[in-house]
Amino acid sequence: MDTFTPTPVSKVKRHPERGSYDRETVYAILDAGLVCHVGYALGDQPLVTPTIHWREGDRLYWHGSAASRMLETLAAGVKACVTVTIVDGLVVARSAFTHSMNYRSAMVFGTARPIEGREAKLQALQHLIDRLYPGRWATLREPLEKEIKATSVISMPIEEASAKIRKGPPLDYDYDMGEQVWAGTIPLTLVPGAPTADPKLDPKIAVPEMLARYALPR
Amino acid sequence: MDTFTPTPVSKVKRHPERGSYDRETVYAILDAGLVCHVGYALGDQPLVTPTIHWREGDRLYWHGSAASRMLETLAAGVKACVTVTIVDGLVVARSAFTHSMNYRSAMVFGTARPIEGREAKLQALQHLIDRLYPGRWATLREPLEKEIKATSVISMPIEEASAKIRKGPPLDYDYDMGEQVWAGTIPLTLVPGAPTADPKLDPKIAVPEMLARYALPR
Questions:
Q1: Which residue would you say has higher pLDDT here, B113 or B184?
Q2: Rounded to an integer, what distance in angstroms lies between the CA atom of residue A207 and that of residue A203?
Q3: Which residues, 6 or more positions from B71, have their beta carbon under 8 angstroms from its beta carbon?
Q4: Is B182 an interface residue toward A (CB < 8 Å)?
Q5: Res B8: pLDDT
Q6: What is the Cα–Cα distance from A9 to B163, expressed in whole angstroms?
Q7: How many CA atoms lie within 13 Å of A42's alpha carbon, on the beta-carbon side?
Q8: Where residue B141 falls among pLDDT bands split at 50, 70, 90?
Q9: What pLDDT does A66 receive?
């Protein structure tokens, strides 16, 4: 099995039984999450920026305006920690301290840098569009040079990573089994609604099937 | 209007028109989010840990095992950045670069420390339970001393903060209005499903109305 080697940075200390260093497990969470939280330090000040991400092989990507502070900082090769969290449900237990949540989270570590070169940038952005909307890139006009220039794409080799997953019912103590309170789980799912056309859209343009029955990445 | 004063750390640089420093706006996002991402640095290594949070007045709280690395580090008074992000929808546009997401995010900054004292800890944890499950704390048995000791509660005064919000239709360029592709938004909502009883639950205990028709915090 292809696994990451945990170090003091990536080792899951709290509830270690929920930790995994399996590459496939980590990547499945990265791919299923819509947004990530990128952590980096400006001096002694940590910053956590939410952004959309995507993955190709053993690299994680995100993007932003070429002017953004996060990307300016990372351009210098600052260490980053990128965390993706998917909340799957609430765990309602028999005692206050055993209440919990069901979730999947992945933390990945590496040193991120902007990718250089027009073609590499374009290919990466195509992956972003097609991850969320399979096949859509091919239906769009060619990007303009000024758009490509104004956007930085950041690439980070996934050097180290861990996943943490909780699922299933509450884990109450045997001595609490007589408590007369309900216990169980409430699933939480991110659900796409019906597409709303841009008020400026030509009404002759129909919503494509892929968007009408939109399925989030898994 | 009660607003935070932006500094180079909290100022929204990318899409500044989406930024807000209004205390009420920031707090509404903190209160509506189920989980936060806590960023802090261990030396030059940033770490981003997802956890559940709650707010009372101008303080943000989160908790964890007294043994957790994050809380050990923060006990020494390390600076933290806590970000809450709520994804509200996908923005499908007429060109690749105008695709976006609708979201609400809040970044708050401060120096976090564990709270001391049995009563202060208990009161804070009651707020956590009752934020998610109004009235539930009163239905649960008294916490045990060993449970209280094993759990750290972290409190951070919200010293500085910003919000960033995108909503509404795609913002395409006038010169793209003739593109023959669909454009609009797809709303995304976190939806609670039907409660699932713990397999070990006494079948005579009914699910309370508050959980049967569970409404996420707003």
A1: B184
A2: 10
A3: B64, B65, B114, B152, B154
A4: yes
A5: 87
A6: 30
A7: 14
A8: very high
A9: 61
In percent, the amount of chain A with pLDDT more than 90 equals 80
CA A101 to chain CA centroid, nearest Å? 18
Q: What is the CATH number of domain A16-172+182-187?
A: 2.30.110.10
Q: Which residue, among A40, A42, A45, A48, would best test binding to B if mutated, counting the most B CBs under 10 Å from its CB?
A: A48
Beta bridge partners of B60: B55, B156
Tokens of A30: 């990265």
CB contact under 8 A, B169 and A37: no
Give the CA angle between residues A31, A35, A37 to the nearest 5°.
110
Judge: A79–B46 Cβ closer than 8 Å, yes or no.
yes
Give chain B positions within 8 Å (CB) of A151: 97
The span from the CA of A98 to the CA of A111, in Å, is 37
Helices (H), B66-192: 69-75, 118-132, 145-150
Q: Is the pLDDT of residue A157 over 80?
A: yes
CB A49 within 8 A of CB A28: no
Cβ–Cβ below 8 Å for B46 and A140: no
The residue with greater pLDDT, B14 or B132, is B132
Q: Give residue-wise pLDDT tens across range B161-175.
A: 999 999 999 999 999
Helix, strand or coil, per DSSP, at residue B203: coil
A-chain CB neighbours of B48 within 8 Å are: 37-39, 48, 81-83, 107
Q: Which residue of B has its CA nearest to A63?
A: B97
| Chain A residues within an 8 Å CB radius of B19 | none
Q: Report how far apart, in Å, the C-alpha atoms of B181 and of each of A140, A208, B100 are.
A: 7, 9, 16
Task: Give the residue-averaged pLDDT of A99-124.
Answer: 94
Name the CA radius of gyration of chain B, rounded. 21
Ramachandran sector of residue B99 (left: φ over 0; alpha: ψ -120 to 50; beta: rest):
beta
Query: How far is it, in rounded angstroms, from Cα A181 to Cα B165?
Result: 39
Q: Which CATH architecture has domain B16-171+184-212?
A: Roll (2.30)
Query: Among A93-97, B68-72, B78-82, B201-205, which is the least confidently predicted range?
Result: B68-72
Residue of B nearest to A10 (CA): B47
B198–A172: do the CB atoms touch at under 8 Å?
Answer: yes
pTM: 0.95
Q: Do A14 and B68 touch (CB under 8 A)?
A: yes
User: How far is it, in rounded angstroms, from Cα A136 to Cα A165?
Assistant: 32
